[in-house]
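Supplementary Note 3. Input sequence used for the single-chain structure prediction.
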Amino acid sequence: MPIPDYQTIMLPLLKQLSDRKEYLFKDVIALLGKQFKLTEEEMSELLPSGQSLLFANRVGWARTYLKKAGLLDAPKRGVVCITERGLQVLIGNPKKIDNNLLKQFPEFVEFQNIKKEESGSLEQTDLTQVEKQTPEETIDLAYQSIRQSLAQELIDTVRRLSPAFFERLVVELLVKMGYGGSMKDAGKAIGKTGDEGIDGTIKEDKLGLDIIYIQAKRWQAGNVVGRPELHKFVGALAGQGAKKGIFITTSTFSKDALNYAPKNETKIVLIDGVQLAQLMIDYNLGVSVQRSYDIKRLDNDYFEE
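The predicted structure, written as C-alpha cells, is reproduced below.
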C-alpha cells in the first residue's frame, strides 16, 4: 500500500499506545510500519530533500500533532505514551483522527493559529493537499518545485549561448566539481585540440596525473545525441591514446547511446541537459542564493540534567 499521510497515521499511533505503556519512539515507527504492511523499500524511502525517512517523518509529525492536542506525552527523550485525554478519545471509538477532530482541543487550536500566522502565504495553495503533508514535506516539495523551475530556466539559457561560451561553462563546472585545479590550467586546451569529437581536456586531479577529454554538444531539446556521436568520440579518444571522456549535452541521449559500452577499456560518462542543470545548481554555477532558511529542531541533549 502507499505510505500513509501523517493524519492517517494518527489513529493507529494512538491505538498502539492504548496499553498505557511507555514506548521507545523508534519501536513505535517499526510497529506501525508492520501494521501498514510497508515493505523495506517503502520504510527506507526518503523525503524529496533526501535528509530523512519519509514514513518516520510522517509518524513524527503525527506524534507532534497528537501531543499538541494533549493526547500523547513524551515523558523523556525518545519515549512516547498515551495520556488520559488520549484514552478518552479512543473510548469514543472514532473512525479516524485528523486535524478536524483535534480542533476540539484549545491547545491544538492555539498551535494551529501560530502555524497560520507563520505561513500565511499558504492561503494561495491547495489547502486540501497541504493538510495531508507534514510541514517539512510542504517545504521540501516547494523547494523541489523551485529547483525544477530553475533547472529548466538554466538549460533554456545555456542553449542560447555560443558554442565557445558553453565549452568554457562545461570546464568551469568540472573545476568546481574538483577536477583540474585552476580554471586557467583546466581550460587552456579548449578550442585548440583540433581533433574531431574533442572540445577540450581537463586534468582528472589537481596534480594532473591523468587527462579527461571533453565533448560538449550545445544542442536544442529536439536533437537527441545518438550512438554514432559516441562512436566518433570514442574514436577521437583512441586517436589521443585516451581512456576517459565526458560527453555533455544540453539535450538528451538516445536509448542506444545510453546502453552503449565501448569494448575496449575506454570509460565515458554521459551528462544530459537535466543533469547538467542540476549540477550547475549544486555547484553554484550561473546561479546565486536569493534566500535561505534554517530549519531547527529542539536540542534534547542541551536540556539533559
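The longest helix spans residues 135-158. The two ends are 43 Å apart (CA to CA).
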